[in-house]
Amino acid sequence: MPVGTAATVKGITPAELVQAQTQIVLANTYHLWLRPGRETIEAAGGVHRFMGWERPILTDSGGFQVFSLESRRRLDDDGVTFASHLDGSEHRFTPENVIAFQQAIGSDVAMLLDVCVKLPAAREEIEEAVRLTTAWARRSAAVPEASGTLLFAIAQGGLDERLRERSARELVDLDFPGYAIGGLSVGESREEMRATARSTAALLPQNKPRYLMGVGTVADLIAAVDAGCDLFDCVYPTRCGRNGRAMTRDGELNLFNAAFTRDYGRLDEGCSCYTCTTFTRAYLAHLFRAKEMLGPRLLSYHNVYLLNALMAEAREAIERGGWAAFRDRAGV
Ligand SMILES: [Zn+2]
After folding, report:
1. Helix, strand, or coil here: 37?
2. Is 160 assigned a catalytic role?
3. Whole-prediction pTM
4. Which tens digit of pLDDT belongs to each residue from 58-88?
5. CA 254–ligand 1 middle distance (angstroms)
6. For residues 224 and 165, what is the distance between their CA atoms, to the nearest angstrom?
7. CB atoms within 10 A of CB 120
8. In Å, what is the CA distance from 313 to each residue of 206, 237, 317, 320?
9. Ligand 1 center to 258 CA (angstroms)
10. What tens digit of pLDDT does each residue of 267-285 get?
11. 160 C-alpha vs ligand 1 centroid, how far in Å?
12. Catalytic residue among 60, 226, 263, 268
């Protein structure tokens, strides 16, 4: 899922997202709640119409953003009160009102409000996050359904296997349509992230979507698919795209590198996207050095296209029974 935090995938039009084989995008409750706000999006006819995107949209609950605010939020058993990063105004999220918001704007997949802990953290802190995440999930399960909006729960537990087990078991008992693995990519090492993603994915139902949050490099995606995960989101491809960093199957390229200024080859030999079939590395390097807005646009498009193509190939490999060979070739 390309990330469209503020109901836009930065620098890429919905038509281009479709051309890049994007099936679903992610938008963010925290950001849309603060700006433009629920009423504006509802009056537009929902978030799909508002942003001109007809395919599915998953909205994050905003839990991750609120807990990143640290000193600007107060947590209690009922919910969390926080100060807007935009103007300091006070807002409150509860399990019920974040679902109501996501239903009101017409999200296809709404994430439950969870408590996300930055790592490293004390065991007591992680245990408390698991306890509240489950309590909030129980309240979320009692919210009346809105047609067209599925609720996904988010398993927490840091890097602690027993807490992960407890979180997953308690949430699975509530029988949600899908599950996410949260609380990773928040300060732990890559090896720790992969190991916990793998053990947690194994605790979640195989017949439901398993969504690993915050992952988006080529190597991490292959490892996560290998662990049984189905859905991913990350700002990484578009953030790299804006900063001159090209993702390829064989690693990443920095277009500010002097070697590219006279390199008339394709950006990525293995990619058939518009950027790669039309422009040279030298031209793209020039756009970034000249601070032309087309550079970030073309590179963000390539990075999103590349990850979509990679996942399409992964699905195809799984379907024909060739996953292990595909994974090993990808070099993870
Ligand atoms: Zn490309």
Report:
1. coil
2. no
3. 0.96
4. 999 999 999 888 889 999 999 999 999 999 9
5. 15
6. 18
7. 13
8. 20, 18, 6, 11
9. 21
10. 999 999 999 999 999 999 9
11. 39
12. 60
